[in-house]
Amino acid sequence: MVVEEPREAAATTGSDSSAWQPVQRLRAHEQVMSQIESRILAGHLKAGDHLPSERDLATMLGVSRPSLRESLRVLESLGIVEIRRGGVDGGAVLLDGPGAGLVNLLRLQVALGHFTQRDLLDTRLALETWSCAEAAQHAEPADLAELSGMLDAMDDPGIEAGDFNRLDAGFHERIAQASGNALTAHLMGSLRLSIHRQMVEAYSRLPDWRATTGTVRHEHRLILEAIRNGDAPRASTLVQDHIRSFYTTGALVDE
After folding, report:
1. Is 207 helix (H, G, I), strand (E, B) or coil?
2. What is the model's pLDDT at position 26?
3. CB atoms within 10 A of CB 194
4. pLDDT reading at 131 higher than 90
5. For 159-199, how does the pLDDT look when each residue is reduced to its tens digit (9 = 90+)?
6. Binning pLDDT at 50, 70 and 90, where does residue 10 land?
7. What is the CATH number of domain 27-94?
8. How many CA atoms lie within 13 A of 49 on its CB side?
9. Three-class SS string for 149-178?
10. 93 pairs with which residues across the strands?
11. What phi, psi does 82 have (nearest 5°)?
12. Architecture of domain 101-249
């Protein structure tokens, strides 16, 4: 007697999605980027290294020079490489410091409304309370002198709103730098640049923006004093109250 294999079982095996793998069809420039990324992650390329010349690299990778240029342009926009023109130092160089890729991406995502004002507020509070506490423990005399100079500039009675906003953002970013953590400082700088337009608009909605700057300047002075005195808990509390107060006053979030 011949025993037939159950048809249902055979059909199940053929239609089981776990047995199939998607076919990946990468374009040439994506394959180039993948190879460069792999070499960076493997440690074969490091910050400051020059990539081979465009002609040599295209030949080694077996791609056209336009495809190579496209991949390098993407890496440049991400802040991974810098394209230098001509001379001995010309060509593509891996950046030895964080580029503008993060801030450009974050600014567009903020503008598109991918994050709520509450998201932005909570993130600022997390970054800045930590930064102030660390700055209170690690700030050098040069950090304190520069922060004090910013506040002196903000005291100018004839200062315009745009300049005040720039110094305001710079004060918060400089505290993050004084924390001694380079990644936190870069994240803070990227976030402040991304929300710059919102801060300017918040000031424009105030009945008397100059009156508000008086409060802001006073609170900044208290924060700097706590950092100078090495009082980490007080510095964190002050910056938290300062940020929450402005977001409420500027109608960026509900109280």
Report:
1. coil
2. 67
3. 21
4. yes
5. 998 899 999 999 999 999 999 999 999 999 999 989 988 88
6. very low
7. 1.10.10.10
8. 11
9. HHHHHHCCCCCCHHHHHHHHHHHHHHHHHH
10. 50, 82
11. -120, 130
12. Up-down Bundle (1.20)
